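Standup notes
- DV: blocked on the single-chain target, sequence here:
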Amino acid sequence: MCLIVLAWRPSHTQPLLVASNRDEFYARPSQALAQWHDAPGVFAGRDLQAGGTWLGVGQGGRFAALTNIRDLSLPQGARSRGELPSAFLTGELNIEAFLATLRSQRQAYSGFNLLLGDGQQLCHFNSRSGLTTVLEEGVHGISNADLNTPWPKLQRAKQALHACLPDPQPEALLRLLSDNRQAADEHLPDTGIGLPSERLLSSVFIASPAYGTRASTALIMASHGSWQMVERSFGSNGSCLGEVELHS
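- DV (later): unblocked, structure below
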C-alpha cells in the first residue's frame, strides 16, 4: 500500500513536486533514504527483504515511484514489484523502451502502478490494464487503484498539495502526509478486505500495531536538474524514528 500525490508542471522552475507515503508491515526490514553504495547516483530508500525500492531519483533527472493495486482478484506475481523502480533508476533505457519491455512481463508481478520520469516527461503505467498515460500538467495522485481514482484520502491529499503550490516547502509536503483522519464508512471503497481494514487504510497516514506508514517522502525537483528530498521514517503505531534530508 502507498499513496503518491504530485504536481507536474514542466514549464515551471520546479517542474516536479512529490509527496508520498510508503505503507508496509513494520516487521519488514528497510533502509532509510540514502545513496546506494552499489549504484552511485541513485538515491532512494531500500527494501532489505527483496532489495528494491518504492521511490527514488537517479542520474539525468530520472524519477521512479510505485504503489500496489488492492484487488484480490488479481493473481499474485512471483517477483518483487520493488525491482521495477530500481531497474529504471539504475538502467539506461528511456521511458518508452522500459515500459515496452515491462508490458510483456507485467504478469510476473502482483498488481502495481508505476510512475517514471526523466525530467522531460512523466508517465504512469497500470499493470492491470497494461496502459501507459503520459501525464498532463497539473496535480495528480495514485493510491491503490488507478491514476486519480477519487478515493477520499487521495482527494484530501491532492487538495492539500494544491494549497502548497504557491510556495512548496518540504515541511508543508510532509505535513499533508501526516493526515490521520479516516473516511466515513459510506465513502469507503470496497476492495474485498472487509470494513475494519478499509477504515484503517482510508487515512493518508496509517498507524496500527503491525502495519502502517513506514516512510513519508517530500521531493522537490528543479528545472536545472537539482533536487531536494526529505524522508521521515516511522515505526509501530506511527512513532517517528528519524529524518533524512538530501540535496543534489
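- Follow-up: DSSP finds five helices and 13 strands in the chain.
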